[in-house]
Amino acid sequence: MSQHNPQLPPELVPLAQMPLFKRLMARFFGHGLSRLHAQHRASWLHGQADGFRSGHSAGVEYGYREGHQEGLEAGRQVLLIRDSRCTEHPAPGVDDHLFDDWRLPLGAELKKRIKADVARRLPEHSQPSAAQWKMIFSDTPSTSVVAGAGAGKSTSLVLRVLVLHHYLGFELDSLTVVTFTRESRKDFIRKLMATFALWGLALSPAQGRDLVRTFHSRILPMVRSLPGFERLQAFENLNARGGEEEADSNPFDLRLNDTQRQYLNGAYHRLFQSEARFRDLIKPLSRHALQLKELERDHPDVQKRVAVTELAAQRDVELCDSVENLWRQAKAWPIKGIEAKRQTFQINGATFHCHGYCRELEAWVMLGFDPGESAQLTRPGARLSVRAEWAVKRTLFQAFCDKPLIWLDNYQSGKRVLATLGGDASAGPGFDYKVKGELSSAPLLDCFVAAASFIENLGLDVPMAVGRMRFAQDDPDRFFFEALSLYWRALEDHLLDQSPPIMSYNRMFALFSEHSPQNFKLLGDATLRPLSHLMIDEFQDVSPQIVSWLRASLREIRSRGPAMHVGRGAQRSSLLCVGDDWQSIYGWRGSSPQYFMAFNKEFPSPATTRVMLSDNYRSHQHIIDAAEHIVRAAATIPGKKAKACGEPKALVPVTVLERDGPALAQRLIEHYRQGDSILMLYRGVSDKLLIEEHIQSVVNVDSSLPPEQRRLKQLTYHSAKGLQADAVFLLGDCQHLTRSPYKNQVYPLAGLGRDGDAEPYDSAQQDETLRLAYVGITRAVKHCYWYVDGPDGRAAHQPKASDRVAGDKPFFNDLRGAKG
Hints:
Helices cover 43% and strands 12% of the residues. Strands 3-2-13-14-1-15 form a six-stranded parallel sheet. A six-stranded parallel sheet has the order 20-19-21-22-18-23. Strands 7-8-9 form a three-stranded mixed sheet. Among the domains are: 59 residues, no CATH class; 52 residues, no CATH class; 112 residues, no CATH class; 184 residues, Rossmann fold. The longest helix has 43 residues. The protein contains 29 helices and 23 strands. By secondary structure, the chain is an alpha/beta fold.
């Protein structure tokens, strides 16, 4: 800024701008005048001007500085307001919820009225607890109810249906209650009808059957609503008369009847004739299946018979003649495709013979002693029967033969081999097979059905899953699964070609899974509407296949929006699931408790209610604590601990004893005489047969009574779910006895198992053995006796549930090693 101000008069020009002489004179006179205290007008004016100038400069500088700061602040405020707008452009997030964000209209006054009605109409012992009311009144779109054994969940589910229908006005055709078995479905319908009657509501048996379903009876009408499938039949429901059973028959029973076998054989025959690769795969399977199974050389049978090797070799030619004569008399020998040609073998240093050679299977053939022949049949001059001589020879060959050898045990097996070699596949493959990991062998097509059903229950496509498997070069399972992939697709096509068409349940669920959402567009609202408000019992036993169908159905219902419910009392959708991860015992068919344990993740919802029903109205505390002690080693939902409720009972520990048929029978008879109801649970049919002779007297007495008066039931552990008795007898331990290479491979493909676990399926099965013991023990109201094999029993080295028995706990009475 210039220091010269043109507005000042000349006489007030600043001193610094005067000539040097004038500046000196001005200072001299100014100094003198100051000493005389005199005023000089010009100097005063100069001073005034200097003051004006300095004040003006200071003011301008100060004003500029303050104004500038204020201006910057004001500008910054404007700038900040403008910067508050988002400078980026993110895409909207994905709403992956299966439900809208809504609530059931259950206000305080309505809840009060419902509770009052329940108090008047239901007996005192049926009044819901606080936790049960929380389940009944849950208003969120999704609800997860953890209900332990004996928790009274059925009454709560019935009241939930009553609240939705009677008090909220939801139409019955918008509701579905899902149970797992035919018997549980019938039982729930009876309870529902009885409770509705107490409210003066009429519910016919037909309405009850429409409302209460199994998963399979719900999917069938969905598929039948599609054009061309109106008369579709479920493969699993075909009966031996060629008709169809009810859609709620047990779909997990893999036993095949004659009608089903006809279709299986028909598909096999057609594929065998048309597909060269399939024929090539059947050959090694047939050779492996028919080949004599090895025995370890230290096996007791081998050790017992190896001492007579030389003697057996001396009589072998005569034994071969005798066996061949029996086969010729039965017109079962010779067999076309097998050269009737004897061949010598060196077995443990001695010479033996076989009966023929099969060039197509590249294996030697040995004829066996048919079980239909007399066991007393003896060669002239021989001390042993032909059957006993043959048994010795068979054992020696099992231990010491190093060549491929087919041992035909009976005449029928010879005919099946003849059919296979002759290309006649109309009756099926004609041989049994054993997939690694299975407990026993079965007809090849039965093995196909079992393996494919497991894979499909996991929500996987069979050819896709097979393509992800890996086996050793010489592993016969490699050929088995390639053959399965070809056969399963051919079977599905063969079934659909029938009139009316036939389809498996797994195929139906796959049609409406998350992999096929477009198929839902073919369904009308009326077909889909019953799934709007779902209540599912035993949810811990769902499979990945079912979960995918449920999620896809709920997603489709939400996508259709309010238009689907116009003019109706029931709006939007909801899901309530009741289960107990400790009672998940169907992993061997592909089920998993994972979907219940991770409910919020698996069924995303804007809001979820979690209910814990921890009161046990069945058992006393010792039974509860013993069962929980065993199962706690398995993965579980946190915070679970049941407590005994209701009428107090005497605390009797769970008694664990070594297997003893007579002692078990004596205890059982005592309880029966005392009037107790009894459950005898066994692991396998062989266990039942072993004990049956000891308790036959009780069985005879009980079976002569009317059904409602009978107090003895004999069931497998798995079949006992939902039942109870005063005294429970458990026969056999709970063990996972095998390793399944193929199941361990497909399990992670379905997202199941722990990361990094090389055997995820087998690990899950180890946990399941503990849960199976829990189910068995918690059937007991008062007494539980558990009879297990001693340390020398079968597979003693394998982990078993009884390893968790703690002798120092008051709820166990471990008498193993003592006389029980």
